[in-house]
Amino acid sequence: MKKSIKSILVLVCICATVSVLLALTNSITAPIIQKNEQKNANAALLDVLPDGGSFQSMDTSAYTLPSTVSEVWSAENGGYVIKLTTTGYASGMVLLCGISADGTVVGTKLLSSGETPSIGGSAADTFSTAVVGKDLGSIDGVDTIAGATKTTAAYRAAMKDALNTVVILGGGSVDLRTEEEILNDTLSAALPSAEGRFIKYFFVEVIEGINAIYIAENNTGAVCVVGEQFIAIDATNQVLTPCSETDALTVKNAMEAVNATQTTEIDLSTYSGLPTQLVSAKRTETGNYIIDIKAAGYGIAGGDEYHPASGEYIYIRVSMTAEGKIIDCLTVSQAETDGIGSACAEEKFYGQFDGKTEDTYNTIDAISGATITTNGYKKAILRAFESVKIFEEGNQS
Hints:
The chain is of the alpha+beta class. It has helices at about 1-50, 115-130, 150-170, 180-190, 245-260, 345-350, 370-395, and strands at about 55, 70-75, 80-85, 95-100, 105-110, 200, 210-215, 220-225, 230-235, 265, 280-285, 290-295, 315-320, 325-335.
């Protein structure tokens, strides 16, 4: 029994001694480890802000910063280093950005990403050099790299977030809303009764003086864009937004035209020679046409064989006059490569066809890195022109 107690006491003494030695060792090595970690961290920060000197991690809890910003360091020279996490072609794209005291990108570094190394990864390396020297006034002008649209667009947006962060930390005001949020807020302010839910009107008639019309989903009215003005009108056709009599009359006439529009479905079986890609067609009482047509995109290599079950085609809606001038164009649906061919669903692409004719439609700007998508789309537009000519010839016979 005495031997057992003695063994336990010896073991306790050994453990206590080891603990003391470990604590002593830790007290000696911890500052060294911390110093080395700080040195390594500073080395990464100095990569993007070489003249920064020393760095201090900032508590940014009192600021409303872009959601991509995860950490901020202030530099001895008055600049900042900002860590951002964003999504390029894949999620988890982590960047460091060094910003000088005067709000200019000094350097950037891609810390980690899930981008394809030979495409997005390579493009990010190139893009990181292209953004150096840019400020808030010039960052949007950095060209997207063909074939890596998603990656470089995300990189550019992150750099803009970093530059905006510096403005905010300096006491400035920055609107962090997206373009879609700004538009919806503007529409909601003009017509609160819509409760923030609008549908953009697809023009089937030529309406002069109106840039766009957004109709409330709950049918309480609409908002017409006239130049830079957002003019609301209620369901009884009363203009709600203060404006000139001329603009008020323009808005009233526009909504009367919208409400009076009637269409008739065209029986495609009564016409010969129509493109097989034509889905449906309607004619307005004024003689304009609404064409729904399929376009071959990248998913089916630009060919003419369509596979509805796979969704690998682009649905296009185009309205045009009997003379063959496009009134409006819209990508109804698409299944192109995300971040590349999917740009065909953006208004800055399909909106280029507005006002075009068969002689001019081919002059629109192609989607960068998406030649097959662009060519398939333009071929479908040409077929829409051909369809209208066939309809008009049939009407005259």
